[in-house]
Amino acid sequence: MTDDDVDFPPGDGPTSGISVTLTAGTLQAIRERVGKRGVSAYLEKAAQRQIERDNLDELIADFDKAHGPADPEAVAAKRARLTGGAANTGAAAA
């Protein structure tokens, strides 16, 4: 059985080398943060975060399809409660 025959969740399984093309500025910014030898680990974590975000977007879309979109005022009130800030529906302050 090869690794291609096994389903691994993000972050699990053996490592595998690939070629990735990045703009010079992006690569420079990554190297400034993590050094030359930390690029692969940095990209691995970034890819895992993106997969999590994509999965969350899919869950939200499924929820919205079943229940309709969330009420912006209710979201603002819950955000304020969680962050200790004032409820703000996104309207610009005058």
Secondary structure elements and pairings:
Blueprint: H1 24-34, H2 39-67, H3 72-83
What does this structure look like?
With 94 residues, the protein is mainly alpha-helical. It contains three helices and no strands. The longest helix has 29 residues, at 39-67. The protein is flat. The termini are far apart.
Percent of residues in beta strands: under 5%
* Main sheet record: none
H/E element order: HHH
Mean residue pLDDT:
90
From the structure above, extract its key features.
94 residues
Summarize the structure.
With 94 residues, the protein is mainly α. It has helices spanning 24-34, 39-67, 72-83.
